[in-house]
Amino acid sequence: MPYEVIDNKKMYYEIHGEGEAIVFLNGIMMSTASWVPFLNLLSRDYKVVLVDLLDQGRSDKADVFYTQDMHVDMLNKLLIKLSIDKFNLLGISYGGEVAMLYALKYQERLNSLILSNTTAYTNKIMKHIGDSWEFAASLYDTTNFMKVTLPYIYSQKFYEENFQWINERIKLFKTAFTKEWYDGFRRAVKSADDLNILERLNEIKVPTLIISSELDVITPISYQKEIKNRIENSRWVEIKDAGHASMYEKPNEFSLAVLGFLKTLGYDVRIL
Predict the structure, then answer these.
(1) Is the CB of residue 54 less than 8 Å from the CB of residue 74?
(2) What is the pTM of this model?
(3) Which of 145, 124, 123 has the alpha carbon at shortest distance from 136?
C-alpha cells in the first residue's frame, strides 16, 4: 500500500489518473475510501491525490494532542516527497480548515483552493457540538456515537428518506470504529478548538471556490459567506436541499461545482 513516512509517522495516500493535480482533504470522519464513488469522473482529466491525515483512515495515529498546523506541515512534506509541486487543493469541513491554513502558509504551491462546508473559526455553538461529539467518542459505543453525530451531518429530508441506509452505515462502522479510531477522532476534534483565521483570509490570493449547502446546520451558509467576502478572488455556490455532507446527499451537484470551477480557471466571461 502507498505510504510515506513523514515525521516518523506513516501517511497513507492514493493517486489516480494523470494531469493537473487535485489534492483532497477529508472531513473529520472521512478517509480516502470516502472518495471512491467520485474517482472515475474526477480522474478522467485530473491527477486525483487522496490523503489520509494523521488520525484518519490508514494513516498512523498521533501520540499526543496537536493543532491543525501539524497537518499542514506534514501534508506539505508528503507532497514534496511525491514531487507534486503545483496543485489544486480541495478540503471538506475539517479538511477545508486545514486547506485554508495550508493556503496561508504555502500559497505559492497552489493553483486554486476549493472549500466545501467549512468554517474559518470555531465559534461557541461549534465548540459545544465538538464537545458533545468528543464525549460520545469517549464512550466507545458506535451505535450511540453515530446517533449523536449523524443527525448533524445529514439534512432532515435525507435522513428520513434514507433511514435504512443510515442504519446500515451504523452496523458497518461497528467493526471499523476501534478504540484507536475513537481516540484519534477525539484528538482531531480538539485540534480545531482554537481555530480562528477569519481576519487573515484576505491574505489568500489564489482563485477560490466556496461550496455551501442550504440545510447545513454545522457550518451554515453564513459561515461560507464570511469566507467569500474576505477572499478577493473567490466564487461561491450553494447546493440546494442538502445538509453538511453535500458530497453524499448531492454528489452530482457537488461534482459539477468542482469540475465547473476547475474548467473555468483563468477565464473571465463577460456579457457586457
Answers:
(1) yes
(2) 0.96
(3) 145
In terms of DSSP bridges, do strands 234-239 and 9-16 run parallel, antiparallel, or are they unpaired?
unpaired
Quote the strand ranges of the chain, DSSP E. 3-6, 9-16, 20-25, 46-51, 87-92, 110-116, 208-213, 234-239
Among positive and negative, which fits the CA dihedral 7, 13, 19, 21?
A: negative
Cβ neighbours for 43, distance < 8 A, ≥ 6 positions apart: 16, 17
Q: Each residue of 27-77: pLDDT tens digit?
A: 999 999 999 999 999 999 999 999 999 999 999 999 999 999 999 999 999
Beta strands 208-213; 110-116: pairing state: parallel
CATH architecture for segment(s) 3-121+195-263: 3-Layer(aba) Sandwich (3.40)
> Helices 142-153 & 124-138, crossing angle to 10 degrees?
160
